[in-house]
Amino acid sequence: MTLHMLEAAKPATELKSEALQVLLERGLINQCTDLEGLDSRLASGAVTVYAGFDATAASLHVGHLMPLMTLRWLQKLGHRPIAVLGGGTTQVGDPSFRNEARPLLEQRQIDANLAGIRHSVERLLDMRGADGALLVDNAEWLTEFKFLEFLRDYGSQFTVNRMMTFESVKSRLDSQMPLTVLEFCYMMLQAVDFLELARRHGCELQVGGSDQWGNIVNGIELGRKGDGRKLFGLTVPLLTTASGSKMGKTAAGAVWLHPEHLSPFGFWQFWRNTADADVGKFLRLFTELPVNEVERLSALQGADLNEAKKILATQVTGIVHGADQARAALEKGEALFAGTAELTEPTHRLDAARLADGLGLLELLVGIGFADSNGEARRLVEGGGVRLNGFVVDDARRRISSGDLQANDRLTVAVGKRKKALVGFG
A Gene Ontology CC term for this entry (predicted)? Predict the structure, then answer.
């Protein structure tokens, strides 16, 4: 059965399992392969569930919080999560809804990226005890297969006809861009992941982004054909703002979860700058506040809504970076707003290479979360509300070069009184 986002916005009292009731209430369900079957299974006892994270970057970003929060809630409700690091699948690269192949990474880079991802996962999930969350790398089994052995054992379970029907493949072919055999095999590898996890750890449920629907369905079908297993799939919604823009990555970079790539205060500030229309949605998705408290905060108006934004920022930062960092970020934010403190450490970091041809001011404002779009950034600049290194900039065509940087290759950016950032380039 398929459950769409429109339905996910409404709590369903007819569900038997607390787990699905909570996920639905929090807005964390987009589609489910068999809603009634999964509901019955979750209601009958503990279920092992996994989500996978390929090592394509040195850190996860806020888009990854959707499956991570789903795993976190399921663990709180008595189920066991597995976070699968894609040490094997990263060597191939997921082609889902991409117009070109991902660049192939060297093993050294993959290993470094895996370490960064591990850091964030261990923050969000409870790894303690015999029943704690598991963290495994799919390279454990994928790199052990011999080519002919893999084709014989698994290739016969897939048909090209079926694989061609998945939207992730059709979108690439419709764009008339090449799809390599290497990429085409990715969905087979992810399907094998599900089967291996079922065999090794009794895993019955996979959680993924909405772009993973076809890959998840393949894994469920392989489990049925290969072992006669009953497996389930659940996707989370695409993370978007009220304006319709995709969250997670911006024109100037991603909103990273790892503190080396975005400071805890920069992370806090990103959430503090949430658009009014998104506050309620993000409180529901990314905090563990009771729903009645979320509804109370969501109903606030005007200046009172700023308090809700502080609560949102502090709650999410506490989950991702810990309570101490969240409190420190809140205190720094309050001091900056009061004008009693200045930033001393970069809140955001960007590659210095972006300055070679000049980094657009509008692009920078969107990238650090001070505007939702180039149009909004333009209005801020032309209205005289933007300052670079303390000086008002009113030219929306302004480009930033290395000559604009202060000591230690830093740039201060401010919008009005509330939004201040120290951007480091290196």
Answer: cytosol
In the chain, the largest separation of any two C-alpha atoms, in whole Å, equals 68
Run of H or E including 196: helix 186-201
Helix (H, G, I), strand (E, B) or coil at 180: coil
Where would I find the H helices in 9-129?
A: 18-26, 35-44, 65-76, 107-124
* CA pair distance 112, 87, nearest whole angstrom: 11
How many C-beta neighbours within 10 Å does residue 405 have?
17
Is 186 within any annotated ligand binding site?
A: yes
Question: Tens digit of pLDDT for each residue in 302-339?
Answer: 889 999 999 999 999 999 999 999 999 999 988 877 66
For the chain, what is the mean pLDDT? 88
Classify strands 31-32 and 48-54 as parallel, antiparallel or unpaired: unpaired
Domains in the chain: ranges and CATH: 5-236 (3.40.50.620), 264-340 (1.10.240.10), 345-426 (3.10.290.10)
Residue 249 labeled ligand binder: yes
CB under 8 Å, gap of 24 or more: what pairs does 338-343 form? 339/417, 343/265, 343/412, 343/420, 343/421, 343/422
Q: Could you tell me which of 46, 54, 91 has the C-alpha nearest to residue 201?
A: 46
Whether residue 51 contacts residue 70, with contact meaning beta carbons closer than 8 Å, is answered with: yes
The pLDDT of residue 248: 57
> Which H or E element spans position 324?
helix 323-338
Taking residues 83-97, report their average pLDDT: 88
Model pTM? 0.83
Using CA atoms, how far apart are residues 364 and 272, in angstroms rounded to an integer?
18
Q: Using CA atoms, how far apart are residues 340 and 45, in angstroms rounded to an integer?
A: 54
Token reading at 351: 């590659």
154 annotated ligand-binding residue = no
Q: Is 31 among the annotated ligand-binding positions? A: no
Q: How many residues does the chain have?
A: 426
